[in-house]
Structures are given as C-alpha cells and as structure tokens.
Amino acid sequence: QVRLVEHGGGLVQAGGSLGLVCEDSERAFSAYAVAWFRQAPGEEREFVAAISWRGGFRYYADSVKGRFTISRDNTMNLVYLQMSNLKPEDTAVYYCAAVRTSNYNWGPSSVGSYDNWGQGTQVTVSS
User: Fold this and answer.
1) I need a labelling partner for 118 at 20 to 30 A (CA). Which of 9, 27, 108, 127 fits?
2) Which residues on adjacent β-strands are paired with residue 6?
3) Residue (of 97, 94, 98, 96) closest to 10 by Cα position
4) Three-class SS of 3-27
C-alpha cells in the first residue's frame, strides 16, 4: 500500500513555472502507475498526466500537452510534475493518485482507475 503526499504547490504568475512532487512515504511506489489530477472550485476532478510503473509510458491531457512533464524516480519513491507556461486556468488543487499495476494502458485518465489518493496541493496562477 502507498501513502501519497504532494509537495510544491503555491502562487505563480501566468507564464511562470512550478514543480510538484508526489511522495510515497511507504516506499512502494515502484509497483504503481501514478497520475496527477486537478480540481478547480465547482468543477469535476480532471486528468492532467500519468506515468506507468517504470516510466516508459506517459499520458497527458490535451490542455497541458507541451507545457507539463511527468516523470518519476523509483529509487526515491517520487513522481514529479513540472509545469511551465502556466495559465490562470491551471489554477486548481492538484492531486496525486496511484494504482498498483504493471499494465501500460490501465485507464490512465479515469478517476476510477485509481485507489490511492493524496490530500492535494493548491496551485494558483495569477494573471
């Protein structure tokens, strides 16, 4: 079982960059596919990016493709989300999610594909 904690949220100006980190305090991350989702006030939780258990497959929402990069370091039990060229519409609470799977198409963009969630971290992009 994993225990997920997100780090790195904050306030940034439009056009700026910010990095998020998802940490597994149980150090079991290497067997899990991991994703980032986000939720703005009054909106549904939406998919941002996902990475397979060994990092060989990465998936992105169209809205962040070319601006966000997901990566992982299984030796450190960390998953990263590097965000650049941020826009006000990127403002949301960002959540890390994980599911234990070695499949490469586990339904990466679906909320229901994940059974482990962090508490979230706020990202605010000012215009």
Assistant:
1) 127
2) 22
3) 94
4) CEEEECCEEEECCCCEEEEEEECCC
User: Which among 11, 95, 13 has a CA at the least distance from the CA of 50?
Assistant: 95
DSSP-derived secondary structure letter, 109: T
3-state secondary structure of 120: coil
Which residues neighbour 112 within 8 Å (Cβ) at sequence distance 6 or greater? none
> DSSP class of residue 96?
E
Give the C-alpha separation, 53 to 5, whole Å. 18
